[in-house]
Amino acid sequence: MSNNPFNHSHFIGYINQVLPHYVKVHFPSSVLMKSFTFYGEELKGGLVGNYVVIEGENYGFLGKILELSLPEKERLELSEKSFSTKDFHPTGKIEILLSFELFHPTRIDKGLNSLPMIGSKVFICSSEFIKGYFKNFGVKDDYVGTPPTINLGHLTYDKSTVVELSQQALFGRHCAIVGTTGGGKSYTVSRLLQGIIENKNKAIIIDPTGEYSNFDNIADKTCKPLILSRDSFFHYSNLTVTDLFVLLRPSGQVQAPKLMEAIKSLKVLRILENNIDGDFIIKSNDNTFSIKITEEIREDIIVRDGTIFKAGKLIRPFNRVYSTFISQIEGLNSNFNIEKLSHQIAKECINDVDFNDHHKWGTQNNNHATNCISLILRINNLVNNTEFNKVFGFDKQKNDDGELIDGINKFIESDLSLLRISFESVSFDFQAREILANAVGKFLLDLARKEKFKTKPLVLFIDEAHQYLNKKVKDEYFESTDLSAFDSIAKECRKYGLFLCLATQMPRDIPNGTLSQIGTFIAHRLINYQDKEAIANACSSANRDTLAFLPVLGSGEAILMGVDFPMPVMLKIESPQITPNSETPLF
User: Fold this and answer.
1) What's residue 192's pLDDT?
2) Is the pLDDT assigned to residue 296 strictly greater than 80?
3) Is residue 432's pLDDT more than 90?
4) What is 239-269 written as a DSSP string?
5) If DSSP codes are grouped into helix, strand and coil, which group holds residue 158?
6) Are 259 and 213 in the same domain?
7) What range(s) does the Helicase HerA-like C-terminal domain occupy (predicted)?
8) pLDDT score recorded for residue 450
9) Do 405 and 324 share a structural domain?
């Protein structure tokens, strides 16, 4: 960056009015507004959108021209011939974006603690000067020049001014790419992915349509894609019990307690299968005791067809196993045989205790059985559905090839930069897509809390984020459950090295809590009033004058704004080398 931004060859005018939000400039001559070339650089004098620098007493100021006009008395004399031959004296309105120290221009003061004085000189801002600002936005003084950068594009009004930004500034406080269909979101996502790959950092993208499949074939840089329901599956045991409840939607009065008891029973059975040796001795860290699995012994646990039979049997043996392995049984995972879940629910439809002997479970309760019929049908429909079997691996083992969590773990441990998780073949029924995305988010959230990304930060891209965030799953009794994994990531994972990058055409559908945690916005064309308001409310740095451009942005044009950017930047995103499959079909 040049140490002296105030080159007198770039002079264009004087400040003649100072207001709290903007200043006005007087051009001594209309000749100063014309374009000219200086040392090979084309400088455009008086154009709306151009950047200028203002020389104050103690500080310099960077501003942008918002408005140009001629004095009333000179407008009547204006003609094509007179503008070329006669001298006019235009005025302009300049938005002050930031201030900097006169003798150390790289030191930016984000707040406007002072304003230029009347009579201060105004100069055209050279591209080299402003490019240096872009690169150092969001970078602490001790790290200037060292963080990896991403070349996003160039200024809308000046193709020679490249917008190269620190990756830390873009993703360090989470990022959102918003805009209507056709605005250029997909190209921006591809551009960011390309930058991360070039910088040898790590990213995972949840791709709902297969749009980013062109990234699959970059040798030694991208991982083999995990295409759910085709060559990959998310084993149901990696779902939490909460996820299963969301998937199965039990009613709260009878079905939910019976489902929980059935899951507990099947977990106890899995404990028995994994811990009993040939003499039926349960092995635990603290003690050992016998449980005979036969019907002749009074103190027993009866196992029939892969389920535990309870009606009329003693409660104590079951509770002894439960108390010994309570941490595993009450864990969040779903480590049990889900194919037996509907049968076990039928076994759970009993009275809590036998009225004649409180040491035994009660007899069959037909009312409970009737109430659980709809839940049993939903479970059978889910488990026996071919498409869902491909997604959740109901008939597979957890360690089989293609398991999603195993694939994510291998990617994290590898030196590769990108993993694509594709939902293109996943059914929309049972809200499986939302539940799957939330489950992946929960898994990464757990890894982040264990500080797996402290030394190797990870950016999680979520395309069409409005499909997955702010979702409530309702059951037939209108009870709802929030899918909030990404909201938790946004609120707590910045310090752990897990960062979100959301791409959506409907920012109004993103929860306010998540939006408020987003530090960087790349906003393409937005027309809907609610979408514009959602961005305006979440961006403290974005002023109304800049947001007014949102409805008229062209394809690929965007406004960059955020916490680490002391001023909004209007730019044209450069086309990525690897383009997404986002073309609209032709009629």
Assistant:
1) 97
2) no
3) no
4) SBHHHHHHHH---TTTHHHHHHHHHHHHHHH
5) strand
6) no
7) 457-561
8) 94
9) no
Contact by Cβ (8 Å): 458, 421: no
Rounded to whole angstroms, the Cα distance separating 490 from 501 reads 10
| Same domain membership, residue 421 and residue 378 | no
- The band of 480, judged by pLDDT with boundaries at 50, 70 and 90, is low
Task: Clarify whether residues 465 and 560 are in a common domain.
Answer: yes
**DSSP SS3 for 84:** helix
Dihedral of CA atoms 114, 62, 568, 140 in degrees, nearest 10, equals -80
Residue 234: the pLDDT is 95
Q: Are residues 184 and 296 in the same domain?
A: no
Q: Is the pLDDT of residue 341 over 50?
A: yes
Tokens of 195: 């930058």
What letters, b where the CB count within 10 A reaches 16 and e where it falls short, cover 248-285? bbbbeebbbebbebbbbbbbbbbbbeeebeeeeebeee
- Which pair of structure tokens corresponds to residue 261? 């008891």
Last residue of a domain, one of 366, 387, 408: 387
Give the residue-averaged pLDDT of 214-231: 92
In terms of domains, do 72 and 217 share one? no
Please report whether residue 324 resides in a domain. Answer: yes
CATH of the domain at 537: 3.40.50.300
**Average pLDDT for 439-458:** 94
Number of domains in the chain: 3
> Would strands 91-101 and 108-109 be described as parallel, antiparallel, or unpaired?
antiparallel
The boundaries of the domain holding residue 510 are 165-235+396-573
The contacts of residue 123 (CB under 8 Å, 6+ apart) are 5, 6, 7, 8, 10, 11, 12, 52, 53, 54, 55
Closest by CA to 18, choosing from 108, 122, 102, is 122
Q: Is residue 87 part of a domain?
A: yes
Q: Which of 387, 407, 434 is the last residue of a domain?
A: 387
Q: What is the pTM of this model?
A: 0.85
Task: Let me know whether 263 and 378 are in one domain.
Answer: yes
Cβ atoms of 112 and 100 within 8 Å: the answer is no
Is the domain of 251 the same as that of 303?
yes
pLDDT, tens digit, 9 for 90 and up, residues 102-122: 888 877 776 677 889 999 999
Q: Which residues pair with 276 in a beta bridge?
A: 282
38 band by pLDDT with thresholds 50, 70 and 90: low
Q: CA-to-CA distance for 62 and 144, rounded, in angstroms?
A: 20
Mean pLDDT of all residues belonging to the chain = 85
